[in-house]
Amino acid sequence: MTTVEPDRAAPGCPYHSADLTSERLDLDPLYAELRDREPLARVTMPHGGDAWLVTRYEDVRAVLADPRLSRAAGVGKDVPRSSPLIQHPESLLSMDPPEHTRLRRLAAKAFTKHQVDATRPRVQGIVDLFVNRLVDAGPPADLAVMLAWPMGITVICEVFGVPPEDRDRFRGWTNEMMALTADDPRAIEAARASLDGYLRDLIARRQRDPGDDLLSQLVNAREGEDRLTDAELAIFAVDLLTAGHETTANQTGNFLYTLLSRPELWQQLVAEPTLVPSAVEELLRFTPLAAAVAPFSRIAVVDVELHGKVIRAGDAVVAQNDAANRDPAVFTDPETIDLGRATNPHVAFGHGPHHCPAAALARLELQVMLDTLVRRLPGLRLAVPADDVSWQRNRVMRGVRHLPVIW
Is 24 left (phi over 0), alpha (psi -120 to 50) or beta? Predict the structure, then answer.
């Protein structure tokens, strides 16, 4: 076993670009180099110091599932990380088993296949609403502004029961929270506190007058005598609403950019719409979402050996899921988009205890969106060269800012 020499300077953690902007969807080639020659690499994070970086598929899965690598151990501490925000103590994403297991078990009752399938007509109606507006306005149109973002926020708010009159405020808070850097990190904390306070009030309303939304189902979720407390409900709601809105909205635009910038892929879906479910899985595998290496670090609570090196207790470890999803040891021809890929065990939704609890809902939304566009706008194409599409900057997640199209 070996350790890194104390005086050895760790290289900067690879990002898509040096100024931490999330321009386009290219994956930094350094990840592939590290995956091949240094699967456990010491890197310097933007905040908090050095961490161990893993890039191989099997290692990433192992790290995400290893109880010796704790998320909770980094709570409230200046640990190595990609965001200026120190990990929040009141977050499902910051918990370890058994506390995390209990909350996931209770919340899973609101995310059964039956519950998610029941939302399909509502999701389809929302997608149809925005596609109708797109068609009525006529080309050219901006898919990011007219579809991806309004659809994303409307679906998550409808499903969770956030009233229409509150959605602009909700969007403002989540937008503030998703900044990769900030002149004053307290602004990110303030946005989370505002959203937390709002959701606590909304939860109280659902307790008095439950509806058919997922928040009401979370309020009523029970296992024997156990149920989520008000504080736990707020924690879960903040995490799910924020992550569910931002990830799906960004990936809607990203998927459409990927397909339309490679017209042969779009035409393949038009010709074979039954490929939509497998296409969504392949686009999840291929399309990087995080602008930085990983939004969360794990802290070793004991010494852990990997690839002949020792991760000492107290060291931070970050997993690069996007690099794992391009691992040739698992995926045949991983740099090629194969919309009909039969075997696709990607880790786009994570792995282990923190696997995304709303993955089925995200899949449903992305499938409905693609299926609807393929059927209704088969002639969809970019209105500008792919290189002229503009991208968001300074975001935790990559995403198109504008996506001009014609049909």
Answer: left
Q: Which two tokens mark 194?
A: 């505002």
State the sign of the Cα–Cα–Cα–Cα dihedral 73, 74, 78, 79.
positive
Give the C-alpha separation, 309 to 41, whole Å.
10
- Say if residues 61 and 351 touch (Cβ distance below 8 Å): yes
Q: Taking CA 106 as the corner, what is the angle to CA 100 and CA 107, rounded to the nearest 5 degrees?
A: 85
Structure tokens at 207: 């307790």
| Torsion, Cα of 36, 12, 401, 120 (10° steps) | 50
Query: Residue 97: pLDDT above 70?
Result: yes
Q: Where are the domains of the chain?
A: 93-287+335-406
CATH 3.40.50.2300 fits 93-287+335-406, yes or no: no
Provide the 3-class DSSP secondary structure of residue 97.
coil
Distance CA 350, CA 346 (A): 8
Q: Is 314 left (phi over 0), alpha (psi -120 to 50) or beta?
A: left
Model confidence, pTM: 0.89
pLDDT digits (tens, 9 = 90+) for 12-32: 666 544 344 445 888 888 899
Q: In the beta sheet, which residues pair with residue 179?
A: 395
Helices (H), ranges, 138-185: 143, 149-160, 167-177
